[in-house]
Write a structure and sequence with these properties.
Strand content: 15-25%
Number of strands: 9
Order of helices and strands: EHEHEHEHEHEEHEHE
Shape: globular
Number of helices: 7
Radius of gyration: 17 Å
């Protein structure tokens, strides 16, 4: 396959889940792939799995001060980017009564500021015809109890996609969003819940999904590939919802 032949793609949060699946797929489709991650061990493991030709750069999307360093490091290895998949994100939940300012800021630092300033710092590398893909969430559409900080951050990210699409269109750069529903990824293992709590939460969500199951990282990676490739050349500012029908169909 060669939908990204001779393209250079950078995937933030590319060490696990959707990011890793996308890195794997983009590479199979002919792209030169760069991944980022904040955990050195996971970064090394992902690079080992993907291959020595994949560049792995340690970078924390929550730390805006580190993003110029990311741009500098990437510039040492490539002279341009054709694809930027902003996948790095954080999901933590708390009801209004127990929501703290620290948790709110932690989530928005990655999911909102991380999007803005990653694009800002890497923009000089993005060529005409480049594609930016932002990983959002159907939580931006749903009033799900306990997700106030997360949902608001993803709604902001969705809005940023529209604004960035307008600002960057004169440069020939497209900006689109993927909005996944529940997906089986290591993200759920990072929520601080027990296995029983995770199983209970999955049981609560699955009946709302017309297809009757969680999605897979590979399925979301395929959506990312479409938006990254020339096949979506007339798409910008839009949102590709991959949620098994949750927000569109009454099961």
């Amino acid at each position: 396959m060669s939908r990204l032949k001779d393209k250079t793609a950078l995937i933030t949060g590319g060490t696990t889940g959707i990011g890793l699946a996308s890195a794997r797929l983009f590479r199979q489709e002919g792209a030169r792939v760069i991944i980022t991650g904040q955990d050195t061990r996971r970064l090394e493991a992902a690079q080992k799995e993907l291959g020595a030709d994949v560049l792995a750069v340690r970078s924390d999307a929550a730390r805006v001060a580190e993003l110029p360093e990311l741009a500098t490091e990437v510039s040492k290895h490539v002279d341009h980017l054709d694809v930027l998949f902003i996948n790095a994100g954080i999901a933590k939940f708390a009801p209004l009564e127990s929501l703290t300012e620290a948790l709110f800021d932690e989530i928005h630092a990655v999911n909102v500021k991380g999007v803005v300033f990653t694009v800002q710092q890497l923009l000089p590398l993005l060529v005409e015809g480049a594609s930016i893909v932002v990983n959002t969430s159907i939580n931006a559409r749903l009033g799900m109890a306990g997700t106030l900080a997360y949902a608001s951050s993803k709604a902001a990210a969705r809005s940023l996609v529209r604004v960035l699409a307008g600002e960057l269109a004169p440069r020939g750069i497209r900006v689109n969003a993927i909005s996944p529903g529940p997906v089986t990824t290591p993200l759920y293992d990072k929520l601080g819940m027990t296995a029983e709590q995770l199983q209970e939460r999955a049981g609560q969500m699955t009946p709302h999904i017309p297809l009757g199951r969680f999605g897979t990282s590979d399925e979301i990676a395929n959506a990312a590939l479409f938006l990254a490739s020339p096949e979506s050349s007339y798409f910008t500012g839009t949102e590709l919802v991959a949620d098994g029908g949750w927000t569109q169909v009454i099961p």
